[in-house]
Design goal:
Blueprint lengths: L4 H8 L2 E2 L10 E2 L1 H20 L3 E2 L5 E3 H7 L1 H5 L7 E3 L2 E5 L4 H9 L10 E10 L15 E11 L4 H19 L5 E6 L10 H22 L3 E5 L8 E7 L5 E10 L1 H5 L4 E2 L5 E2 L2 E5 L5 H11 L13 E5 L5 H13 L4 E3 L5 H10 L4 E5 L1 H6 L1 E6 L4 E6 H13 L10
Parallel strand pairs: 3-7, 9-10, 16-17, 16-18
Antiparallel strand pairs: 1-2, 4-6, 5-6, 7-8, 8-15, 9-11, 11-12, 12-15, 13-14, 18-19, 19-20
């Protein structure tokens, strides 16, 4: 039985909501902030490994920006209304790509410097109706790990492979198994932007990239005619939750629309201007949705590296307070998340640590002090054992640095 992330939140204090803040606008509490920071760190590392360049852009843009991008005509019902500021009408952005297109357009580009990959952990906004917002899964501010690639047509195949591999790698690290990858293509209708030749070239490149990458992962590529975005074909990584509901966790999308609308060009080897292809790629995804998915996937007992508290240290009596603090400090010096709990009986403190899903519970009494050890309970692994402090810290450090689900007690 799947436990809803909103119910888990009652025990774990991941996020809070308040009518005064507004529906669909959760506030990340300290435990949730830890999870989000770890996800952001992973997203940044995966982006850097692929040569992405970090950028920052505003969450507001002029109405004219979203008229130019096409978002206003296509998604106006999902956008927040404009705010009058002097002569300008400003709007909360519904997507990050228009600003990234402007960043590309801020300088003349040569074919020799492409591809350019701009990455940003960026906020975007959806005017979701009050009746549909829910916990972290349906929100009005989405914080998205977002990369936009600007490349030549002959680079599309490689960039599609790169983006798909990064997305699959992210899900592998997170432990969110992908059921299949959908290749969303166009149908025979006339609603698609771009030429027939552009679509055929793009779809063939994505098909080839998908087969190449998915064969390595033992996943199937399922084609879905008519499911493409209006501006280009795309990959969707499809997962099923514990309720057997299917959703898209990450995408790689080709876009002919934005480069055309913003007049983006690069100077080719022939000295003339050419139009780049834009690729939207996501790896980790939105911080809100992936956190909700992870909480439900692991019933709150998150992988060690993601746990808000790696270890809770419990002194059996006040005589062990100093030793407990010393162990917690040693863990913190290694970048690990530790705390000491003195409040209440030992049994009550153990129950509280279990309730909040702290990964390890370490008890220190007179025997442990005599042997420089701790009594460890690793609930997720079903292990209760006596271990030296040095070995414990080493195992914790390895699990955190390598982003593993649990400590390797066999070492």
């Amino acid at each position: 039985m799947v436990v809803d992330h909103r119910d888990l939140n009652l025990d774990m204090d991941i996020f809070a909501t308040d009518p005064l803040a507004g529906s669909g606008l959760p506030m990340w509490l300290p435990a949730g902030s830890v999870i989000r920071e770890e996800l952001q760190k992973l997203a940044k590392e995966l982006a850097a490994a692929d040569g992405c360049l970090g950028v920052f852009s505003p969450v507001l843009g002029k109405r004219a920006l979203y008229e130019r991008s096409g978002h206003l005509s296509k998604f106006s019902q999902d956008m927040f209304p404009a705010m009058q500021m002097g002569d300008d009408e400003l709007m909360l952005r519904p997507a990050n790509c228009p600003h990234h297109a402007l960043i590309y357009a801020s300088a003349q580009r040569s074919y020799r410097e492409l591809p350019l990959r701009f990455n940003e952990l960026a906020a975007m906004f959806r005017a979701e109706r009050s009746g549909v917002v829910s916990g972290l899964s349906r929100v009005r501010q989405i914080n998205l790990d977002d990369t936009h690639v600007f490349c030549r047509p002959d680079q599309v195949l490689h960039e599609a492979e790169l983006g798909l591999r990064a997305a699959l790698r992210a899900q592998e690290i997170l432990g969110l198994p992908v059921d299949y990858v959908r290749l969303s293509t166009r149908d025979d209708s006339s609603t698609w932007l771009g030429t027939d030749a552009q679509w055929e070239h793009a779809q063939e490149n994505l098909r080839a990239a998908g087969q190449s990458v998915l064969d390595e992962h033992g996943l199937k590529l399922v084609e879905a005619p008519g499911e493409a975005a209006f501006y280009g074909p795309k990959f969707d990584l499809q997962v099923k939750d514990g309720r057997d509901r299917e959703e898209t966790i990450a995408t790689v999308q080709l876009d002919f629309n934005q480069p055309q609308r913003f007049g983006l060009t690069y100077v080719g080897a022939d000295g003339s201007e050419h139009r780049p292809v834009m690729i939207h790629r996501g790896t980790v995804g939105s911080m809100e949705r992936v956190t909700a998915a992870l909480l439900e996937r692991y019933a709150g007992r998150l992988p060690f590296w993601l746990s808000p508290i790696h270890i809770t240290v419990l002194p059996v009596s006040p005589d062990q307070d100093g030793a407990a603090r010393t162990l917690a400090d040693k863990a913190r010096h290694r970048g690990l998340r530790s705390q000491v709990d003195h409040n209440g009986s030992l049994a009550a403190r153990v129950r509280n640590a279990r309730k909040t899903r702290d990964h390890l519970i370490a008890a220190i009494g007179p025997t442990e002090i005599a042997h420089n050890s701790v009594q460890i309970t690793d609930i997720a692994s079903g292990i209760r054992t006596q271990v030296t402090q040095e070995r414990l810290l080493k195992l914790m450090d390895d699990a955190y640095r390598n982003r593993t689900t649990a400590l390797n007690w066999s070492l």
